[in-house]
Amino acid sequence: MGALYSKNSRGGRRVSLFGQTVETALAREMDDQKIRYQPESLDILMEKTHFSKFELKYLYQCFKQNCPSGYVTREQFIAIFRSFFSIHRLSDASQYAELVFNTFDDDRNNRISFSEFAILLSLFSKGTLEQRLEWLFDLYDCNGRGYIVEEDHVTVCRAMYALVGVHYFKDKHIPAMLRRHIKHQFLKLDRDKSGKITRAEFIQGCLSDPNIITSMEVLRSVW
Question: Which Gene3D superfamilies match (predicted)?
Fold first, then answer.
């Protein structure tokens, strides 16, 4: 019950977290108890990640402490992401959090298991540049089509600008200068001018751009 409630500092009574009513929280916790996630064995995770057994045990203890059910729901992930990455009062990290969540949720069940979390965390912290670019492609490939179209690029740009509190995209209006910039970046990667960026085109184009490589190294240092 401690994962869902905290004590009111004045009256000592319990209040719901994550904006849930008491009744909703209780029902949800009972459902969670029926479907608690069992992680893969350490040996299997060691094969899938670059982590040692000691590192995986430590990560699992931290994960389990914050997520007793053994997984993070989409709503919980967005709430956590917003608490860390809302830079100021105009920031809206929820759109970018949605995109990042989708790259973690490999089986598309709207939950992140410890295995999914550990595998992607390993990629960020210890993976090769090509592996991290594979992840970036998945971030842009919002609908899982296997290729990126220009509107996918717009979706990611919208999320990134909202993250830093710049809201250029009200009522779906995009300033002409920004639209030209997006199209220019898209055409640089769309080498065969098909209107679609394949995974191979994306990775090859990024590897030839020093600015993107620098950005990926910064991302690695953050994780």
Answer: EF-hand
